[in-house]
Amino acid sequence: MDRIAAFLSRPRIAPLVVLAVWTVGASAIAVDPAMVLLISAGGLLAWCGEGWYILATHPEPPIHPLGPRAFTIVLIVAIISTAALDWPLRLAFLLSRPALDAVADGARSGDTTADHQRVGLFVIDSVRPGEDVICLWTEIDGYSNTGLVRRHEGREHPDLHACSVIRLDDRWNAVFVTNCKD
């Protein structure tokens, strides 16, 4: 038990803080959840591997007070919960929902002037009204789009041909790496 306490209390919190900030921030700005999961898992594995190496090579590692151990546990929980639940993205969406709805309503009536503007906590590169959906793309390249998609009232959720879709509420989805036609 002392070795586990030592593992959690080593003064190696800085890499974990950086990983936690990156994980929460990446999720909040709608980075692909698979990417968030892979980088978070890789970072945690590297952090654990380094910790086990230190424990194996130092016969009596010092035990630090409960504060650093508790902070380390909080950081690990933040990283895992972000990768598993996408809560920063969901929180950013909830805080931005009125502005996103206003842009989507405007796009439905033909106003697509929100291109390359901040809408709530998101930066929208392109607004594309479609037959069944309004697409607010946060990232566009020649082949794929990433962003927020709202289906029209009374329409079923269309097949978005996406690698990852996070359903944010009854009408909004976060869509990652898609090659769908508008």
What attributes does this structure have?
182 residues; five-stranded antiparallel sheet; 5 helices; 7 strands; elongated; two-stranded antiparallel ribbon; alpha+beta
Secondary structure layout:
Blueprint: H1 2-9, H2 13-28, H3 33-57, H4 66-85, H5 87-108, E1 117-119, E2 122-124, E3 126-129, E4 133-140, E5 145-151, E6 162-167, E7 172-178
Helix pairs in contact: 1-3, 1-4, 2-3, 2-4, 2-5, 3-4
Describe this structure in words.
50% of the residues lie in helices and 21% in strands. The longest helix is centred in the N-terminal third of the chain and has 25 residues, at 33-57. Strands 3-4-5-7-6 form a five-stranded antiparallel beta sheet, covered by helices on one side. It is of the alpha+beta class. The model has no long low-confidence stretch (mean pLDDT 81). It has five helices and seven strands. It starts with a helix and ends with a strand. Helix 1 crosses helix 3 and helix 2 (13-28) packs parallel to helix 5 (87-108).
Strand-pairing-aware structural class:
alpha+beta
Largest sheet: 5 strands, antiparallel
Q: What share of residues is helical?
A: 40-55%
Q: Give start-end ranges of low-pLDDT stretches.
A: none
Order of helices and strands: HHHHHEEEEEEE
Give the helix tally. 5
> What is the strand tally?
7
Distance between the termini: 57 Å
The Cα radius of gyration reads: 21 Å
Spatial order of the strands in the main sheet? 3-4-5-7-6
* Average pLDDT reading: 81
Shape designation: elongated
Percent strand:
15-25%
